[in-house]
Design goal:
The complex is a heterotrimer of chains A (322), B (269) and C (258).
Chain A: H1 2-19, E1 26-31, H2 36-47, E2 56-61, H3 64-72, E3 79-81, H4 86-93, E4 109-120, E5 140-141, H5 149-164, H6 169-180, E6 183-185, H7 190-198, E7 204-208, H8 209-217, E8 222-225, E9 232-239, H9 246-256, H10 259-267, E10 271-272, H11 297-306, H12 312-319
Parallel strand pairs in A: 1-2, 1-3, 5-6, 5-7
Antiparallel strand pairs in A: 3-9, 4-7, 4-8, 4-9, 4-10
Chain B: H1 2-10, H2 13-16, H3 18-45, H4 49-52, H5 55-87, H6 94-100, H7 103-106, H8 109-120, H9 134-159, H10 162-170, H11 175-204, H12 207-213, H13 223-232, H14 236-268
Chain C: H1 2-30, H2 35-42, H3 45-78, H4 84-96, H5 99-110, H6 125-135, H7 138-151, H8 154-161, H9 166-194, H10 198-203, H11 214-223, H12 227-251
Helix pairs in contact in C: 1-12, 2-12, 3-6, 3-7, 3-9, 3-11, 5-6, 7-9, 8-9, 9-12, 11-12
Amino acid sequence: MRRISLALLVALLLPALATGASKGTRLTLVAYSTPKDAYGQLISAFQKTPAGNGVSFSQSYGASGEQSRAVAAGLAADVVAFSLEPDVTSLVQKNLVAKNWNKDTYKGMVTRSVVVFVVRDGNPKKLKTWNDLLKPGIQVITPNPFTSGGARWNVMAAYGGALRSGKTPAQAVDYLGKLWKHVVAQPTSAREGLQTFLAGRGDVFLAYENEALFARRRGQPVQFVIPKATILIENPVAVTSISKHKAEANAFVRFLHTLEAQKIFAQNGYRPVVPAAARGFNFPVRPQLFTIKYVGGWAKVEKKFFDPKTGIMVRFIGSSGG
Amino acid sequence: MVANAEALSAAPAARRSLAPGLSIGLSTVYLSVIVLLPLAALGWKAHGWGAVSTPQATAALKLTLGLSLVVALVNAVAGTAIAWTLVRDRFAGQGLVNALVDLPFALPTIVAGLTLLALYGPKSPVGINAAFTRWGLLLALLFVTLPFVVRTVQPVLFELDRELEDAAASLGAGRFTTFLRIIFPSILPAVLSGAALGFARAVGEFGAVVLMSGNLPFKTEVVSVYVFGRLESGDSGGAAAASVVILLTSFGVLLAIGALRRWVTRHDR
Amino acid sequence: MTAKYALRFASLGYLALLLVAPLGFIFWRTFEHGVGPVWAAVTTPDALHALKVTLVLTAIAVPANTIFGVLCALAIVRHRYPGSGIVNAVVDLPLALSPVVVGLALLLLYGRGGWLGGHGIVFALPGMVLATIFVSLPFVVREVVPVLREIGTEQEQAAATLGASALQTFRRVTWPAIRWATAYGVVLTTARALGEFGAVSVVSGRLAGQTESLTLYVQDRYQSFDTTGAYAAAVVLALLAMATLLLMTRLRPKEGIQ
């Protein structure tokens, strides 16, 4: 009896100790899976500025769609940084982000990237164009577009790439169907996709350029090819309307657009939105680069391709697995 | 004596009337809040039954049930063999081996998955790469279900009356015949119980397989990972529907094994 | 004779390949470069926070389930009431449920839009506590019930006639009889709570330093290519598991080996 009472007492006290005394402001950052390292450095840099002095952070990283839904389901975030705009738009519709979140100079975006082919060292299968991916026996890894933001960029890059090569929209959709027959794994997030590829699955992994750079920096035996026709990825960041520390959160988002922060992003492989920060880094421009507007804009694209019931990708996902 | 007993129980009834109410009431409330309420929400919000009959869902279900069945069978054999070695054999370090059998109960499932991946995965020092394959899944499930049959069979083997075996031997029965005719029927109910528990555990296993499986739909996606995937895709209704289906299937199999076990026990008399 | 050796070899070989080799290998791999890097990996702020979260979850779940466990066992065995059979079955439910399903059920109940939603339970520590309590619920009950059945009510009734109150009867008569069974149940509960992964995976928000348990931390490190960090955390959990295993061996009802 005594043993139990003691344990109970300790158990009642521990939570109090665990929460600890919180001094200063604490911001919660909920982000997609790949920029963990970058935000680690950015937060340290922010804390050295006057605006960031005394501000501590809780951070959560995961697949973009998954994280967006978590915030919608109750995950208390101050700042959200997702892979693509629709993951913020869905929060606007739930009144969790203000309607004017993207009315600034950068339209709400904080980084850019492009879709690339991550291949084995030496590119043994010689994969350079979107058509090369349809060669017999080629195995493709791309995350699941219903959970991963990166995967949606991949789909639109493939679709737009087909359009750029002269196909009609119907033929481009047809291309997507053919491509998805080559997909052998659909991990939940971009980061998990890299894991799967590095564990030996597949011949090519469709990824963000920054993820490829991350892998190379970690000494992984891969290289990447930027196809001539690829999509310009733009990643949004926003302050939530339910944030209890809007001033500090806005200060953090403003900081992310400073030259210093954009340089940190560039060091981590992200293309900066502030042009001056790209100086000194090698981010090749591709001749047939296009944006999401070229393929119809997110609103149209979400409905046509990614509607959970009627989207085109629903059909194709089921057919994958070879 | 009987009259006394009645007198005994009558007297303190008044003083003890609070105790049953307290224990019954508290435990029922606790159980309802912790277990029943969430499960009710699950059943209520389960919709999208169409999602449960998609090819991907059916494939996950088939794979899970198939693997769990194989695991149950392997455990029935291996578990009995190990139980035998622990009860009937005698060697140095036997106590350590006995303790080791409980390791899968004590080890976190994600750690189990990680250790198997380290030795039998992409960076395997012995060249065995079972990651993203059904063999890898099998390995993970065998790991976590190992103790069940061993622990149900051990006590029965221990209690077994050797006289029957000795009698059979003296009548000229070979060791195998003795095993088949005398020992096996006695331990069969225990083997079935342990295998059933292992089966139920394997059907729901998540932590040990999540790193190994690679989520390849139709190839290595088990139903717990499928449910997780549905949830992450925003289809919590579909995830709940799939959960209810596996729940009912597991219970169905458990009931069947329970009935089989009772039949075996009755038949034995 | 050879049959005996063959069986022994087969059984021990199976155990070696399935259990011992992988675990031994991970220990070897982890400490390949000495204890230094492992210690560094395990004492990072995130790792320490994760350990704290795991210990907090366990420290709440275990006493709660122990008290419930004893009360429930008493209710089921001593006070046969209508529905006690159902209660017995419900107690066993957590053993049959996939942890992902448990997490999903909690999410549907306490998440935004759920019946009890909007109170900051899921994606925060309370949700993880509920998940941990759920999955580790049955053990104390299951260990105490058979002992209570076995010892019978004679002594308790005798104590009652001598004028003992319910509490005194429990303290002096019942508790000493179920003490060791309860302790064994507590150890099993602790092991289960420490190792919980699936259910907390669904209800956590993976907020590093707040809602990331040590098990989630292992997965996170592994997926970030930080195998040292992953292995180091895994080793900490494995050592905790082995300590639990030791207690289990000491407290287990002594039968089953020569």
